[in-house]
Specification:
With 883 residues, this protein is of the alpha+beta class. The protein is 41% helix and 21% strand. A hairpin with a 5-residue loop joins strand 17 (202-209) and strand 18. The radius of gyration is 28 Å and the shape is globular. It binds tryptophan and zinc ion.
Length: 883
């Protein structure tokens, strides 16, 4: 395990390497416990670099067995090798030279899942961000690009399949019982994109003909017997390839594109050149075992990793500070792909929900950082929702400001200028600037200033002057290391609507830049005046969530209801429902905290039920409208001194009012939507119908207060979406009844041999609200199905409690914090990345009421005091505790 060196890396310290890497030849002799890696590297000194400068290569826990210089054993006084670096002195002034390093690895003992490891008997690698240095000594940074030749030697019987990046060169027998394969990747790449896979796997094959007529072989490798569960991923892959050609003009560039699914993986998936490696959760699906959400995730992640081929691989990052250059942009691309493939409005609502609950929370706490950070201690901890999701929103704003064509021009120039390079955020922004002749200086603050901007809006109508005055003010809260902020460029899509929801057009707008339906807020406070507005006009602002900000708009409930019921923009309608719900839920929480009866708001319930029953609206949208802001959202709204039990109790009371008032409607909806027959289809329309049906089921169970309906739904379900939803209603609403017990047992025995479904079984139980959750999770981690080294399983048990069970995790006695702390210390010894990620669940501890906050702090301090922590956990615990 890499422990903390206390070293902080700064963006401002960037400088290129002293030596240029020309090519890389690697030979792997695979063995479960003693794999030999021979690495031949050809370098030359960069022009202008001091002739005495040594070559310093990165390592991490390496054992070197030989070192050659131009094929001759190197004198021991010319180098210094430690487990984490190799320094070579007295190198030629200007001629190229060759360094050959041999290292020995034990892939079976690699529980960190970084570098070369084994998952279910399969050899695989994960090199991003700094895993390559766990394989061999190397200039392990993204601005060192070279072509790679890879030779793999392995046992023929256990490893019939030998894969690496690029195109297959050839293979043959290799002595007794062994064989070898050679691969060559002609596209220069950084080490983090290297990959190797070896083992015995089944395959699904297809082909794709690119826009210039080249045929590409497509292969998805999964465990034998699971091939039929990879067909949806293959379909998503082909659609992604087509979409990237049509929308971004990007064509694939090798003869073969491979995806490999493994069951032990720290993240979702990895975009290694030509050989993507996936958490099998994001490849495998069939109706009996995958939910609609699983299908949507597979589609999005297959697309995301494929899109990286251009945004990440062909154009990579100069250094890790530029991570959003590939991640934010690629998330934007996968969001657009999914929006085109599904309902754009519903997709946008889901994105914004996710952004608010994850990124806004991160951005308002101790782990807040800019989309492009200026310093880091451990880069693994910067694969965050801010870099990914806020990074995507920043890209989206560029397209909002420039419009579709201007955005396309900028992207084209970016590809043209930087193909084959390791680029920066400045390069990216400059492409849009130069292609459109528009200045992005102020806009660039989005990359450097952390914190969610708060925009306050007010309007006044002057009937005599026929003007509507819109006053806007922006405030960006202080974040760690950034006490003061500059005003940003915030593009706000808007419309004015009349009593029927029709758009009202102003005869003129003054006060600042307006392009089409976008107001550009650039000053700290700014007033726009709309002329020619004779009668009531309601402002619908930040339509489509054009900017990732929080709007504070003291708009009347009447105006919000008008938007909720009549706006032509579906996103705005959902936003207005949310805005109506927020004060109702916040007030309910306050009443619950004082043990008062929760009053609720009949008019809000009316609006909601009107939307729920509106047959002209797509079911998926109605389901979104009915799922109120989460407990975490309400807690954020309340700000400080929050009591999670009161938030929960208040929200439950409001849900019950909705359930009772709408019991007829929910009954009708459930029957009508359950009545569809025909083969299962995971498409968005069918998924939307299931979503509304299962939402209705949840309300029915709440007003009925009996498990009968959910038990019947469980018995009848013919797909995993319905089955797992019915089980969730049973377990969460009626945790202790017989029906729940027998359903959980039936589910467990039916899917005992399917790891991904057993993960759901863990997660459903770990998220049962209330004080009992901790004992349940303790029992789950002692259960025979628990696998402490499998990240998916750990996340489904412990992660579900910490991230998705606010009342269970925030027990008033602090016992769940202590449990998490003890687990973190154990997990940290095996898998620091996983441990650090779980620990981020405590990032909002300061917002809790004082008793819980004290207990949370004590648990965090126990972690901080442990004598041996990974760099990953040390970095998070220090930042979370810092005042
Ligand atoms: N680059 C991957 C992506 O597409 C993220 C990733 C996968 C990753 N595995 C990782 C990041 C391990 C850090 C460590 O988003
Ligand atoms: Zn990515």
């Amino acid at each position: 395990m890499r422990t903390d060196t206390g070293q902080v890396i700064h963006l401002a310290d960037y400088r290129p390497t002293d030596f240029v890497l020309e090519r890389v030849d690697l030979t792997f002799e695979l063995d479960p416990v003693e794999t030999k890696v021979e690495s031949r590297l050809i370098f030359h000194r960069r022009e202008g670099v001091d002739h005495s400068a040594p070559l310093v290569l990165d390592g991490d826990g390496l054992t070197m067995t030989s070192l050659l210089f131009d094929q001759i054993e190197m004198e021991t006084d010319r180098y210094t090798a430690t487990s984490d670096s190799l320094t070579i002195r007295d190198l030629p002034a200007d001629s190229p030279f060759e360094v050959t390093v041999t290292t020995l690895l034990n892939p079976s003992a690699n529980t960190q899942l970084m570098g070369l490891y084994r998952s279910n008997g399969i050899y695989c690698t994960q090199c991003e961000a700094e895993g390559f240095r766990r394989i061999t000594y190397f200039p392990d940074r993204p601005d060192v690009l070279a072509p790679y030749t890879i030779n793999i030697i392995a046992d023929k019987e256990s490893c019939p399949l030998l894969l690496s990046n690029g195109n297959f060169l050839g293979g043959a027998g290799y002595g007794e019982g062994k064989h070898f394969a050679a691969w060559f990747d002609p596209h220069p790449k950084p080490s983090y994109l290297f990959a190797l896979v070896a083992g015995d796997l089944g395959v699904v094959e297809d082909t794709f003909t690119t826009m210039s007529g080249r045929e590409v072989a497509l292969k998805i490798y999964v465990e034998h017997g699971k091939e039929s569960r990879a067909t949806y991923a293959m379909d998503a892959l082909k659609r992604s390839m087509k979409w990237d050609e049509e929308v971004f003009g990007r064509e694939y560039d090798l003869d073969i594109f491979m995806v490999v699914a493994v069951s032990d993986f720290n993240f979702g998936a990895m975009e290694n050149k030509g050989l993507n490696i996936f958490n099998d959760k994001y490849v495998l699906a069939d109706p009996a075992t995958a939910t609609d959400q699983d299908y949507a995730n597979i589609e999005a992640i297959i697309a995301h990793e494929y899109f990286h081929n251009w945004t990440g691989n062909r154009i990579t990052c100069r250094d890790w500070f530029q991570l959003c250059l590939k991640e934010g942009l690629t998330v934007f691309r996968d969001h657009e792909f999914s929006a085109d493939a599904r309902s754009r409005a519903v997709k946008r609502i889901a994105e914004v929900r996710h952004l608010r609950s994850e990124q806004f929370t991160e951005d308002s706490g101790p782990l807040a950082h800019p989309v492009r950070p200026a310093s880091y201690r451990e880069i693994n901890n910067f694969y965050t929702t801010t870099v990914y999701e806020k990074g995507s929103e920043v890209t989206r704003m560029i397209s909002t400001i420039l419009g579709r064509d201007g955005f396309k021009k900028g992207m084209d120039l970016y590809f043209e200028r930087h193909d084959g390079e390791a680029a920066t955020v400045e390069d990216f922004v400059k492409s849009f600037q130069d292609a459109n002749g528009r200045d992005f200086k102020q806009f660039s603050l989005w990359y450097n200033q952390a914190g969610t901007p708060q925009v306050t809006v007010s309007t006044t109508h002057d009937a005599r002057a026929k003007t509507l005055t819109v006053s806007l003010e922006q405030m960006i809260p202080a974040t760690p290391g950034q006490p003061n902020k500059e005003p940003m460029h915030i593009p706000l899509r808007f419309a004015l609507i009349d009593e029927d929801g029709s758009d009202v057009t102003a005869s003129g707008i003054t006060g600042g830049e307006v392009t089409g339906d976008v107001l550009h807020l650039t000053e700290r406070s700014q007033t726009f005046v709309f002329a020619g507005i004779a009668s009531r006009a309601v402002l619908s602002i930040n339509r489509g969530f054009s900017a990732p900000v929080t709007i504070h708009f003291d708009q009347s409930a009447d105006d919000k209801r008008l938007i909720a019921l009549h706006d032509s923009d579906l996103f705005s309608r959902w936003q207005a429902i949310t805005d109506l719900a927020r004060p109702v839920l916040a007030h309910a929480a306050t009443q619950a905290a004082k043990n008062e009866d929760v009053g609720g708001d009949a008019r809000f319930v009316d609006v909601l039920l009107q939307i729920a029953g509106d047959e002209t609206l797509e079911p998926a949208f109605r389901a979104q409208a009915l799922s109120l802001p989460s407990e975490a959202d309400i807690a954020r709204e309340l700000g400080s001194d929050t009591d999670p039990d009161a938030v929960h109790a208040g929200r439950e009371a409001i849900l019950k009012q909705i359930a009772d008032a709408g019991s007829d409607l929910f009954g009708k909806l459930y029957t009508a939507l359950a009545d569809v027959t025909g083969p299962f289809s995971p498409d968005a329309e069918n998924a939307g119908r299931r979503a509304l049906k299962n939402t209705a089921l949840g309300f029915i169970a709440l007003s009925d207060a009996t498990p009968a309906h959910a038990a019947e739904a469980f018995a009848k379900a013919d797909n995993m979406t319905d089955l797992s939803q019915a089980l969730t209603v049973l377990a969460h609403r009626f945790p202790d009844c017989e029906e729940t017990k027998s359903a959980l047992e039936a589910f467990e025995s039916r899917f005992a041999d399917n790891a991904l479904v057993i993960d759901k079984w863990f997660a459903i139980q770990a998220t049962i609200p209330g004080d009992g959750a901790l004992d349940r999770v303790k029992a789950l981690v002692a259960n025979k199905h628990y696998i402490a080294n499998n990240p998916n399983r750990v996340r489904s048990a412990i992660g579900s409690l910490a991230f998705s069970n606010p009342t269970g995790f925030n027990r008033a006695d602090g016992a769940a914090y202590d449990f998490l702390a003890a687990q973190i210390l154990e997990i940290d010894k095996r898998n620091p990345q996983l441990a650090a990620r779980l620990l981020t669940s405590m990032r909002s501890w300061r917002q809790l009421e004082p008793v819980r906050a004290e207990k949370a702090k004590a648990a965090l301090s126990t972690i901080a005091r442990a004598d041996k922590l990974s760099a990953d956990v040390r970095d998070i615990v220090d930042r979370v505790l810092k005042s």
